[in-house]
Amino acid sequence: MSLLRVEALAKEFGGIHAIEDLSFAVTPGAIHSIIGPNGAGKTTLFNLITGLYRPSSGRILFEGSEIGGVKPCRLAALGISRTFQNLQIFFNMTAIENVMVGHHRHLDRRFLPSLFHLPAVARADRALKAHCVELMEFVGIGGYAGAEAGELPYGALKRLEIARALAARPKLLLLDEPAAGLNPTEARAIDEVIQRVAASGVTVVLVEHDMKMVMGISDHVLVLDYGRKLAEGSPAEVRANPAVVAAYLGIQP
Amino acid sequence: MTKRSHRFGLLGLVAIIAMAPLGFPNAYFYDVATTAMIQAVVCVGLNLLIGYAGQISLGHAGFFALGAYGSAILTSRFGLPPLAALAASALAVVTLAFVLGRPILKLAGHTLAMATLGIGIIIHIVLKTESWLTGGPDGMSVDPFSVLGLTIDGDRAWYWVCGFLLALAVWLSCNLIDSPVGRALRAVHGSEVAAQVAGIDTGRTKLLVFVVSAVFASLMGGVFAHKNGFVTPDLASFFRSIELVTMVVLGGMASSFGAVAGAVILTLLPQFLAGFEDYEAVVLGAIMIGTMIFLPKGLLPSIKALARRRVRS
Amino acid sequence: MAAQLLQLVFSGLTSGAIYALAGLGFAIIYNASNVINFAQGEFIMIGGMAAATLVAAGMPLPLAALVAVAGTMLVGMVLEKLAVEPAREAGTMAIIIITIGASILLRGLAQLAWGKGFHTLPAFSGERPLAVAGATLMPQSLWVLGVVVAVIVALWWFFSRTLFGKAMLATSYNRLAAELVGIGSRRVLLAAFALSALLGAVGGVVVTPITFANTDAGIMLGLKGFAAAVLGGLGSGLGAIVGGLIVGLVEALAAGTLSSAYKDAIAFVIILVVLIFMPQGLFGKKAVDRV
């Protein structure tokens, strides 16, 4: 049974068809990558899956239920989490608080217990803090636990977003260009983090331009071009596909 | 802010409230201090909305005035006990803030500012016009506050009551900020998109903080009505709403103590400048412009940042 | 009955024309920079007050009007240079607070200079009312409508026929692209403030014989101008004009037929209703957010 299935999905903005007749499936426990030239519609696809855009037509099914057009805050409860291509860090909070927010839907969010600082809320927050420190160590930025979010370097912030997404205990994690702007060493570190995340049982779908990373860690690759599916399959199959080579990887001499 | 600095700040505030009267030569000082503390509580509530949640309200004096007039009318014209009147007004304000808040909080930036401005001004006009109920532009008098046979009378009594309320308000807001609800609030300000994806219903969160800040204003409006013995429609004026925003902005957004500082400074300032009346608008306008250009984070957070940098070097 | 209605219509169109000018002022600045200039109303007030005091001091009306308008334009440009430009990158909240602060500051300064009393200008072509279909029309109202139409035509010519006007339009469509082809956005913003100040001042001068000038008048005028701009769709010039006339008419008709005490509230009810039910206004476009 696929965790996420997209059927004949389409999204238009005015006259522009950002996504057209797209269908694919994501199998649980695997690492899936979506690649394609800039403007191919990858971030639009993520925005559709996470409820930030409504589909113009077609269906998005998560664990069998229709989620197209569902409000983003409800999708977190279903088990979908994501990071952003242009960092959406809460710079008005500390790093650890950023991660704690990720866990929001699991907490007692009622107003009065928070207002009066009831012992149960305080206890839950202490436990959460400890858990979030572990998450930060898991992604490799444990040393920044006490820092303000604004003090972290760019590479650490990318990982902070992943820690925040993991705090939600997702079944499906969408990573939008996790290695963007990172040097090769940092990119390799993110690589490892992604593999560790997948090994812990979370299904990962990532959008990436870094071909080495994509081909190295993916179990399945989907290639988009102008909002349509160009090809899909294992890394080896995609790499050998002549249409992909021509459109994206460059014509071989 | 860390929990420790919250606790420290609260203790400091309580100490100041307790010891300040030692320096008061006469009853007038108690009166001014009480007014400052009432404004401070309203600002603490408003700061939750502006500083922490990143929204704006240019009509908050309207909620204050509704609370004031609610207490005035329900006690003096309908004979309700003051505590019940306070609660009833607060309930009415909650309802109004909820009903209006839902649609307008979907807006952002200037459109939200204008909508809240509109609410405040409409309240002002209604209070001026329905003189059969409100006494019109000349205002109406208010019975003193009494509960269980005890009457709060005199400047000293009101000072201690409002001092307690201020400490309580700051304690509650510090609790809130450090809690899951508070983090959700701040997340909405930090990045609404990321907050939604993390599972926070941003619309509901914004509405919650809007209603809470309106209630702070309403309750203190009622307190003010009984303390002052008299209310006028100008309590709801645009100028009053701007004053409140200036207090929050000056003292420090995203800092409950900053909001208190801003309220105290701007309440005491006219006292120090004789003949200030004529220059009030100029000074207020200059403070607003100057703060946003030179101290965009407000006084207290800027002082804190400066101190942190000194400590580092 | 019909004559009474016509009377209200004349009155509404006259005030509506001033709101249209104010709304245009908002639109121009908003288009240049996404800033809502809360001080727009003060431009109207300053124009009227300056002209009134100059004429009272003996200056002939045409010269006084010119000086008043030029002076207000100067005020607008100083405002932009000192208060708005330093905070360009500071975010919406900061700019809102700054322009509100500027409006309060200008009003305070005006009160120090001119006091709180009412001043007036003599009507441009006399006080004898004209009879039109049973209703009376003050000649000054015709001046108001005429001047506003002339200003609108001049604006249209400016934006569609002159190079700088087109440059300003380009900036409103895409600031970065305009800068890349050499259109300085800072100069455009300065010009936008000067233009809005001009519009406001002209409105102030031409309406003072009817409504009298007073340093407190700016706030309400500005806010009603904002109602016009929002109703028409923020950023749309045509919208601001249509919006202004609608606000003026609704206000006059409601005050005349329902309740005059709530006249001022009409504009704010319009603001709330528009923002809640159709925030893009009559002619505006719906915005799409990119993530």
Report a brief summary of the structure.
The complex is a heterotrimer of chains A (253), B (313) and C (291). With 253 residues, chain A is an alpha/beta fold.
Structural key phrases:
heterotrimer; B: 313 residues; mainly alpha; two-stranded antiparallel ribbon; 14 helices; 3% strand; C: 291 residues; 11 helices; 2 strands
Description:
- The complex is a heterotrimer of chains A (253), B (313) and C (291).
- Chain A has 253 residues and is an alpha/beta fold.
- Chain A folds into two domains: 1-76 and 173-178 and 205-253, 3-Layer(aba) Sandwich (Rossmann fold), CATH 3.40.50; 80-169, Rossmann fold (3-Layer(aba) Sandwich).
- Chain A has helices at residues 42-49, 72-78, 95-102, 111-115, 119-138, 154-167, 184-199, 211-217, 235-240, 242-249; strands at 4-13, 16-26, 31-35, 57-62, 65-66, 80-82, 172-176, 203-207, 220-225, 228-233.
- In chain A, the strands form two sheets. A six-stranded mixed sheet of chain A has the order 6-7-8-3-9-10, sandwiched between helices. Chain A has a four-stranded antiparallel sheet with strand order 2-1-4-5, covered by helices on one side.
- In chain A, helix 7 (184-199) links the parallel strand 7 and strand 8.
- In chain A, helix 5 packs across helix 6.
- Chain A is globular and about 60 Å long.
- The N and C termini of chain A lie far apart (41 Å).
- The model of chain A has no long low-confidence stretch (mean pLDDT 88).
- With 313 residues, chain B is mainly α.
- Chain B has one domain (3-237).
- Chain B contains 14 helices and four strands.
- In chain B, the strands form two sheets. A two-stranded antiparallel ribbon of chain B has the order 1-4.
- In chain B, a hairpin with a 2-residue loop joins strand 2 and strand 3 (150-152).
- In chain B, helix 1 (3-19) runs antiparallel to helix 7, helix 2 crosses helix 11 and helix 11 packs across helix 12 (256-272).
- The two termini of chain B are 21 Å apart.
- The model of chain B has no long low-confidence stretch (mean pLDDT 88).
- Helix content of chain C is 74%, strand content 2%.
- A two-stranded antiparallel sheet of chain C has the order 1-2.
- The N and C termini of chain C lie far apart (57 Å).
- Classes of the chains: A alpha/beta (253), B mainly alpha (313), C mainly alpha (291).
- Chains in contact: A-B, A-C, B-C.
- Chain A binds chain B through residues 50-52, 71-73, 75-77, 81-82, 84, 88-93, 97, 100-102, 104-105, 107-111, 113-117, 121, 124-125, 164, 168, and chain B through 172, 175-176, 178-184, 186-187, 189-191, 193-202, 208, 212, 254.
